[in-house]
Design goal:
388 residues; alpha/beta; 2 domains; five-stranded mixed sheet; 9 helices
Length: 388
Amino acid sequence: MSAVSESVADASTSALAEHFATTPAALDQLAGEIAGALALISGEGLASDGQMPAAWLLPAYSGVAPDSLREWLQNSGAGTLFGAASGAAGAPQSTAEKDRLRDEIIAALGRHSIQLRSPATAAHLHCLPLRASIVAEVVTALLNQSMDSFDQSGITTLLETSLVNDLHARCFGDNAIAPPSKSDNRGVFTSGGTQSLLGLGRDALVLLPVGPNGSADMAAAAKVHAELIAKGDLPFCFFATAGTTDRGAVDELPAVAEFCKEHGLWMHVDAAYGGGLVWSKRASMLAGIEHADSVTIDFHKMFFQPVACGSFLVRDPASFHCMRSHADYLNREDDIFPNLVDCSLATTRRFDALKLLLSFQAMGPDSYAEAIERLFAQTTLARDWALS
């Protein structure tokens, strides 16, 4: 037996083994611990008889002041890496003490986090996640693949690529440009749409006036563009928005496309919020998105996914060539395997595509479209109430 295999064998039988899910018995124990954690979280907000209270009785937040929560974290040991309470002799040593502290932390999270299942929770963009997406999160964490290179991810690279291809086709349709080779990618999963702006800085951005509905004023855009050229500046990109954060406004994408074509600008559509409409009965609201050079979509918004999960798509996959670089330990120039780091600013990434895939397959197109319609109905109701 080699030194490496002996080391592995020793580790599997040592006290450290109980901290890893490497055997069927350990996986069973993990399943029990997950079930226990879910029971602790779901138990918060239940009535004394164990039944869920009327929806309006479940508050969006417990109301406990931040200073009180800080004091509890300090005194209980919950807020320190090894669980040592303030003034205590040391961290909990026995299994029972560790389990007690773990359960206290999980229960406190269930009690004092923002309750996304409460109808009183509104105004922000993250959502109640789908059950299928939560299952996917557990699987993703257990497999712990790194999506930068094929030799760290295996089949998960191919699955993410396949899902990106579907997203790409849905956004760009017949305007999509085929990749130069099968190793070129049409997009990549990210933690959020704002990554598409990484590196530009605020000084590089010029804000445009908006019209009454909150979308960009294209007449004003022409004037601003002319002024920039007259100053000697070089505009290169138009950042259109499909669903603004505060108002949900969608820019006139066909007009933006014509403007970009006329002036030789890259057309980027920030559909982080409104991208979900592509799969709904209201897809016409995003007409013109197929002319974009790049699109960002956040799935942790209108797609009911756990944060963070987004994507960056390019109409022409060759666009990624400008950022490609090689490292012997990661993506060698002569590598025959597909490596997603070739189209990503990040190296180590989670396998976030799985939660979107399992969610779509579980819901199906009709149920997803219905969920979007309910969101519109609730938003309309809230707007009418606010204006009444």
